[in-house]
Amino acid sequence: MTLVRMEKVSKAYRGVPAVREVDFDLKAGEIHALLGENGAGKSTLTKMLAGAVEPSSGRILLAGQEVRFASPSAALEAGVAMVYQETSLIPSLTVAQNIYLGSEKFLNRLRGTFISAQQFLQSLNFAVDPMALVETLGAAKRQMVEIARAVHHNARVLIFDEPTATLTPEEKRHFFALLRRLQARGVAIVFISHALEEALMIADRITILRDGEQVAHGPRSDFDRDRIIAAMVGRSLSGELYRKRTAESLRKPGRKILSVQDVSQGRMVRNTSFSVFEGQITGVFGLIGSGRTETFKIVAGITKRDFNRGGVVQLDDRPVRYLTPAEAVRDGIVYVTEDRKSEGFFETMGVAENLYCGQLAAPHHRRIFVSLAEMKALAAEWTKRLNVRAINDNARVVELSGGNQQKVVIGKGLVQRPRLVILDEPTRGVDVAAIAEIHKLINDLADAGLAVVMISSYLPEVLNLSDRILVCRQGRIVEELSPLEATEEKIMYAAVH
Ligand SMILES: Nc1ncnc2c1ncn2[C@@H]1O[C@H](COP(=O)(O)OP(=O)(O)OP(=O)(O)O)[C@@H](O)[C@H]1O
Ligand SMILES: [Mg+2]
């Protein structure tokens, strides 16, 4: 039964079309994958269905009735819930409060809220403490809370905008099992993802957008990876993305720039030791919670380590103890965050302003006054290098698509001209074509002699980009592998055993 029908729906922002006359339909009990490059219009299309964005033209029918939702809560009332790509939780409230937000009667009985939230989270197989404040949670747990909140509303239509980007393989399995259960209950599900394998595995039907238009749709059996990519980017990409590493293509280690010995911090980092070299890409793999982010936040002066419990961090054979990130930046160490929404940028500022803020932090920058010409030149250079696509030069970062926001975050780090750059999940939420662009950029950095650390939970990326692979488990680097001998299985084994 067709539950949702979107007819010739369009949305323009300041006159620039983001979605153009798209027809989209959704059946009860189906999982419908919505795919497309960064900026193709996936979020915009589904936000119109969820009442978060008002269509410029077109009709939306829910169970045969034309609807016009004035707000997300109006859509929720009608049974349409959406898990947004960028989190919409309230950080200062607990997990339980966020899940039941809007159901006031629950908020009055706090204890009852916690217990029922606990049971509910358990039924979803999500290991999240309902009493924890959302602001203390990492990206993965926040995502789980977000999913739980949407599912809790018993919606007829559920939209998931990149729900799996931050989940571990284990958590993904639980999530997909959850989708199957919802599907069996007759819920109509939209699944937006850049993980094409996941879409091919879970979806009954697939719709592909390109430049705001619907370019392909049909049952999953009509598609394979290559056909999806060809429809998404309008050309064939195969071969560009994954090339097997050979002995000749591995970069030799340059000077040792960083050495970490026996460093600890709280419960997340335990006596970890490793080195990083110039002119190389050091890939760091670890499951979420393995302490990989925390380890490198210590290196970059963002987290203070336990100084009294010993441990040494040396930069160029000189011991360092950073108390602030600014000190690390002055020494040429830059950390590019995995959590772009809360740490990555000033979202209401423009692309140029954000890049310029990065530049102001850089050690080579001596001037205090903002020069407009300089800012424009900087923005022009980096939007070109990173191929940032926005509707115009003055777009605020919040108006960019997810993948393009990611490029701005990377750019903001690179304008600081680091000697050691730590990229944490650099291609999360980025489409296949843009992944290739970011990978090229990372390779160029290492070729130019920088020490590059790339933290990633995406195994093909770790295998294909790294010159050496470090595996992190339980707060410690436990193994070093050469990409020549490493396989996905070997890396995974080291990460969990
Ligand atoms: N609030 C806004 N103001 C102006 N332009 C916007 C706004 N939101 C989105 N856009 C533009 O609309 C287009 C479609 O964006 P959308 O977020 O729907 O893409 P997407 O397919 O979800 O991409 P991604 O995979 O990167 O999340 C982009 O060009 C984007 O810059
Ligand atoms: Mg999006």
**How far apart lie the N and C ends?**
47 Å
Tell me which CATH architecture of the largest domain applies here: 3-Layer(aba) Sandwich
Shape field: globular
Q: What's the CATH H-level superfamily name of the largest domain?
A: P-loop containing nucleotide triphosphate hydrolases
Bound molecules: adenosine-5'-triphosphate, magnesium ion
What's the CATH first level of the largest domain? Alpha Beta
In which range does the helix fraction lie?
A: 25-40%
Helices and strands: which structural class? alpha/beta
Seen as an oligomer or otherwise, the chain set is single chain
Indicate the CATH topology of the largest domain: Rossmann fold
Number of domains: 2
Largest β-sheet summary:
6 strands, mixed
Radius of gyration: 23 Å
Name the beta content range: 15-25%
Q: Which strands sit side by side, in order, in the main sheet?
A: 6-7-8-3-9-10
Uncertain parts: none
Total DSSP E strands = 20
Walkthrough of the structure:
The protein has 497 residues and is of the alpha/beta class. It has 18 helices and 20 strands. The chain is 35% helix and 25% strand. The protein has two domains: 2-233, Rossmann fold (3-Layer(aba) Sandwich); 256-496, Rossmann fold, CATH 3.40.50. It has helices at 42-49, 72-77, 95-99, 104-108, 110-123, 139-152, 169-184, 196-202, 225-233, 292-299, 325-330, 340-344, 351-361, 372-386, 402-414, 432-447, 459-465, 488-496; strands at 2-13, 16-27, 31-36, 57-62, 65-66, 80-83, 157-161, 188-192, 205-210, 213-219, 256-265, 269-277, 280-286, 312-315, 318-319, 333-336, 420-424, 451-455, 468-473, 476-481. The strands form four sheets. It has a six-stranded mixed β-sheet, sandwiched between helices. The radius of gyration is 23 Å and the shape is globular. Adenosine-5'-triphosphate binds at residues 13, 18, 36, 38-44, 85, 390-391, 399-403, 431.
